[in-house]
Amino acid sequence: MRVLLALIALTMLTGARDPILVPEVSQHEVALQQGFTGTELLLFGAILSPEGSRAAQDYDIVVVLRGPTQSVVLREKQKVAGLWINAASTQLRSAPGYYAIASSRPIADIVDDKTAAIYELGLKWLQLSPIGAIDPDEQARFAAGLVDLNRRNGLYREEEGGVKINEQVLYQARIGLPSRVPTGTYTAETYAISKGRVVASATSQVEVRKLGVERAIADFSANYGFAYGLLAVAISVAMGWLAGRLFALI
User: Fold this and answer.
1) Which pLDDT tens digits describe the chain residue by residue (250 residues)?
2) 99 and 66 in contact (C-beta within 8 Å)?
3) Is 34 inside any structural domain?
4) What is the pTM of this model?
């Protein structure tokens, strides 16, 4: 009887063990070259039991693709005497240059607000870390403005139902990168969620970098900023002079 009870307890413990995520990305490197108009990444993988077989229960899957964080200064425009001028401003320490989230169901149906805030599952839960003292209402207004601007530029996006799960084993999500996507190391985070709790997570990385002429120009501007500025001015003057000569001959 004791042996039977021990086997039952061991079976229950085994069945309750958390699953394992095996993630993969269709491209681990995205090259930004002349004529780049954007691309689409396929984030896929498997949900397995610790023994490597099919998971014992159903899970929701959430995939987050996050670009490198950066410090940004936001300025609010105000119309004064018919002119738009800079008014209030704030600086955010950790705004991601790109953020996309895809989920098997709406996030509100998968986790509560506390869990969503901890894992930053959704645009409303991004931790932008303002620098200095700022009124909470003003902070929320600036944050909403940044999110709206980047959403319109295709740099922030949410796709509820964007994760497809096949027989509770394989999952996949397609996430687009626009042409103006920033360079750097991107992190693809995958979460398996059951009954409102994150039970497993896994991370992959994607490098977005410039190649060819674009990379040479970017490196030159970063390493020799003053010379790059002089060269840009010289080219502008030369192009203006050439355009003037051409129009004079017409």
Assistant:
1) 443 334 334 334 444 468 889 899 999 999 988 888 899 999 999 998 877 667 767 899 999 999 999 888 877 777 676 677 766 778 888 899 999 999 999 999 999 999 999 999 999 999 887 777 667 777 788 888 889 999 999 999 999 999 999 988 899 999 999 988 999 999 999 999 999 999 999 999 999 988 755 555 555 455 656 665 666 677 777 777 777 777 766 6
2) yes
3) yes
4) 0.74
Cα 180 to Cα 184: distance, rounded to the nearest angstrom: 13
Which residues have CB under 8 Å from 114's CB, separation 6+?
none
Domain with 105 in it: 20-218
Q: Which residues pair with 44 in a beta bridge?
A: 24, 172
Distances (CA, A) of 33 to 27, 154, 180: 16, 19, 11
187 forms bridges with which residues in the sheet? 66, 205
CATH number, domain containing residue 176: 2.60.40.1930
